[in-house]
Each structure stands twice: as structure tokens, then as C-alpha cells.
Amino acid sequence: MSPKRPTRPKPATSSQESNVGIRDSTIPIISRPPPTAPHHGIDATPTIAPRELVHTYPEHSVLEIVDLPADTLITPVAPHMPIDQYFLPPRLLTRLPDPDPRSGIRSAGALRHYVDLQEGGTVLVGNDAENGFRARLASEINPSGPRLEQIEGSLQWRVRSRAETDDAPSTLFISRVPMPQDAATSGQWADPWRQWEPPLHHRSPDDIIVDGIHYKLLPRGTDAGDPIVYIKNPEHMIYDFALLERVLRRDFMQQPRGAIRVPPAFHWEIDPNPPFQQPLTDYVANRFPQLSQTTVRNVARHQFVLANGGDIATGSGLTRLRQTFNDWRMGNDALRPELADPLLMLPILHTSSNAHSNDLTLELPTPNTDGSLQRLDFDPERFRPQWRNYMLTQSAVDLKRFMAYVLRHNGYEVFDPSRATVYPTLVLRQKMHDFVYCLSLYRVRGRKIHRLTNLEPNNFDARLEHLVDPPAAQVVREAHAQNRLIWLKGGSQILASHADTVFIVRDNDARL
Questions:
Q1: pLDDT of residue 292
Q2: How far apart are CA 94 and CA 172, in angstroms?
Q3: CA–CA gap between residue 411 and residue 390 (Å, rounded)
Q4: At what angle do helices 384-393 and 396-408 cross, to 10 degrees?
Q5: What is the pLDDT of residues 314-361, one digit of tens each?
Q6: HSE on the CB side for 497, CA within 13 Å?
Q7: Partners of 436 in beta bridges
Q8: Kind of pairing between the strands at 229-232 and 348-349
């Protein structure tokens, strides 16, 4: 007997209305969880086929309940809707308060708590029976969504793995049998680029044709020998940093796709795997977890401009970014160190002399300014215990230990600080390239760093052994001889008009 056609369940309605704002009747833009996928040797992570991520089915779908042998292994099925069904509409996000610096929870009153997810999107959360956090709809009292957990050292949260959250295995196997009517609509989910053919009057000789479909391309860029080109949605005219970041965060599957000629016929073939698995800012935040939010965005934007040679995305620029992110993940030597290390991205600031004294003055840029990358700021809220301990004494030794802690937790190799109590200095480097940094540390109140001219530069080399331990001093001298030594200034900065911050800048104060 054929199974009965089930009544299609109506999704729970939720306006997500609360005291954070008024009802939003617009359809939310759902950010789909990114698959992890390889691309022509750049990324070897196993992939999940895009169609496995689909959970919204055409209207004519049916369910088939199959009698299974007793020894058949039953796959557990999560008893909740996918996480993106709990995402807040984007228009509500601007009305939420800032996340708590420790828990990452955005509290809007006593009963409304929200968290930002690693894969993009913000959800309302509630406590379950085990006092854990789950996603919930605004219309629910008890949360029905997946169990969530905070990512250690971050303000973002993530869905806990199924093995940790499922209480019992399923006793029923439900398979979806496609109906003939599905064929016309399934491709737009599994292969969204098949909907990207431009109108006839917008086609050009630069387009490529794959399986009879015309595709617009991103500008190819400066690497003439790069075999990869990128097709794009024709509705996205020009990809600047803001547009690419918005697409990756809100409409992940609409990002450009790589294409390459395949021998022996050298026909074009599209790589179905998305080039990027998360927004560009998330790559930077995960690699350097204690940078301030503004600095993360400045680094990501500057990295985008360096890779593309300008403000507009190109094919060779996207390939450079992908290679850099893969180098971060794999721990490879960086082919383009200036794309992989924010310290190499910093501009050189110039000191000025004071006609009435022997001082040289370096005026620091305004901290946490959104826009161009002038300095790195680390957020003290991300290492609150260490910041509190340092602020109790603010001694030279504690300053060195504190800064060494921050730098090591952001991927730098720091030579052990010396016990010298004057002119605190650290020597550090990155494993991905050969440059060496000599970082002079300061406790700054205000905007300026003052340095006596009678101390620099002639006697710095003689004092180097007293500032850092012998192994670090030897590395500094070798790097200087090979033109690989970079001078930095950093430390703590306290301003009446800004939040306390930990900063690093690059200057022209070469002292050897």
C-alpha cells in the first residue's frame, strides 16, 4: 500500500519581536552553513556535497517510510530544525546591544539573550533542562533548537557536535524521494551558478561557456599565468571588499566560483566548491583571536586590497587570498608574507624632533579607527585576567611578560623576555616567513611616545645584550645584516576619550 501523503507542517511563526525593536515583516536573508571543500590542491579538507546542506524542499516532496532489516544501522537524526531557521532578520541586528566581553551574550532585558554564531547569523537562546544553551524561537518558552557552546577565547558561539547533544538514536529512517516536479528547481540549490547566465544584451566575448551556459567573469588580475578564472552572479556588478564580505556572511552560496580548463580538450569546468568557507573577517579573527573587532576588519580590508592590487576583486586576487588562508590553516611558509602577517602590513610612522629638547616624538594614530590600517589594537577584554595583573604594577618586567603572552596567543614566536628592568624590549618572529621584529615597549598615557636622542642610535648595539637575552640579540644582529629586521613600538595606551587598548605600530627608528 502506498504511503499517505503527509500534511506539510507549517513552520513555527516568529517575528523575533522583543524589546530590542519592532516587528520586522521582511523575509530574512538566511546564511547557509559553509561546507569545507578542496580546490585544486589549495585546500584538502573533505567536502560535503552542497545538496546535502539543503533542507528546504519543493512543495511536492513526499516522505517514504521504509521497513528496514533488524540489523540495519540507523543514523541518528537531530530532533530540531537546522540552525539557520533560528537566525534573526538582518534588520534587527543593529538594534541589539553589544556582546558581553566575557560570554559573548547580547542581553536585551532579563528574558532575551542572543549570541553571534561562528558561521554567521545571530540567534535567540534559552536554557534547556540540563541548563545548557539552545537556539529558540521568539514564540517558544522552551528552546527547540540545537545545543550551542561558546568558542574558547572568542565572543562567538557554535553548534555543538551531534555526538555531544543527541540523547538517543533514532528509531525511524525517513528518506526523501524526489518527485518529477523537483527536477526543475533542485539545481538552483545544488548548483546555484546555473542560474547565473546573463541576459543576451549583457554578454561579451570575455564570457566563458560551460555546458551551454554563458558566465560573466571577474577581472582576471595581474597574474597572466594563473589558470583559474572566477565566474560570478551577474547581479553582482563589481566585487569590492564590502560586497564580498556581505555575500559571504549573508548569502554564502552566491559567492564566485573558480573555473579551469581541463585537458585534453581544454574545456571549461566549474569547481562546485565555494572558494571561501567563511567571511574574510572571520579568517582574520580566527587567526589572530585577540585583535579588536575594528582592527580585524581593517586587517581583512587591507589584505583584500593588497591581494587584488586595488579595491576591486580580481581572479588572481581571490586565488592569493585563498592560498594565504590555506597557509594559515596548514602552517605553510607564506608565499606572500605581507598578506599573511598584519605586522608586515603596517605603514612606517615617522618621528619628529623637538627644537626645544633632545626628544624625538612619535604621535600615535587614533586607536580603533575604522578605515585604513595604521596600527594594531588588541582588545583587553579578550585577556582580562592578564591585563588586570599587569595594571596592578605596570613594571617593565610585567609589561614584557604581558606583551609576550598576548603575542604568543596570536601566533607569534617570542623569545623569552630578559630580566632587565629598563627599556623593555621583545624580539619576536613568525614561523611563516624570515622577518624578525624588535619591539620596544611603552606605557603610554595620551597620544605621544617620547624618546631621548642621546640614547639612540649609536649606543643601541652596545646595550642590546642588556635589553634582551643573548640568543635574541644574535637573531637581531643576523636579521639586520640580511635586511630582515623590522622595528616596532607597542605596549599599553590609556586615553580619556577611548577605551584602554594594547597597541603595536611600526616606525622608522632603525637603531643598528
A1: 95
A2: 42
A3: 21
A4: 170
A5: 999 999 999 999 999 999 999 999 999 999 999 999 888 766 666 788
A6: 6
A7: 429, 485
A8: unpaired
Q: How far apart are CA 426 and CA 415, in angstroms?
A: 7
Q: What are phi and psi of 8, to 5 degrees?
A: -65, 120
Task: State residue 63's pLDDT score.
Answer: 43
Q: What are phi and psi of 489, to 5 degrees?
A: -125, 145
| Cα torsion 371, 377, 378, 380: sign | negative
Alpha-carbon dihedral angle through residues 88, 91, 92, 98, given to the nearest 10 degrees: 100
Instruction: For residue 94, give the C-alpha cell.
Output: 543593529
Please say whether the beta carbons of 89 and 26 come within 8 A: yes
pLDDT at 24: 36
Average the pLDDT over 459-465 and give the result.
Answer: 72
* Eight-state DSSP code of residue 117: B
Q: What would the grid cell of residue 143 be?
A: 528552546
The average confidence (pLDDT) of the chain is: 80
- Residues contacting 371, CB < 8 A, separation 6+: 298
Nearest CA among 487, 478, 495 for reference residue 511 = 487
User: Distance from first CA to last CA of the chain, Å, rounded?
Assistant: 88
Q: Among candidates 190, 167, 169, which has minimal Cα distance to 57?
A: 190
Q: What is the mean pLDDT of residues 219-240?
A: 89
pTM above 0.85, yes or no: no
User: Which has the closest alpha carbon to 258: 290, 218, 221, 225?
Assistant: 218
Per residue in 14-42, pLDDT (tens digit) is 444 333 333 333 333 333 344 444 444 44
Residue 12 has pLDDT above 90, yes or no: no
> If we measure between CA atoms, which residue out of 396, 412, 400 comes closest to residue 341?
412
| CA pair distance 118, 104, nearest whole angstrom | 12
25 vs 184: CA distance, rounded Å: 29
Q: What pLDDT band is residue 497 in, cutting at 50, 70 and 90?
A: confident
Helix (H) or strand (E) holding 421: none
| The one-letter amino acid at 377 | D
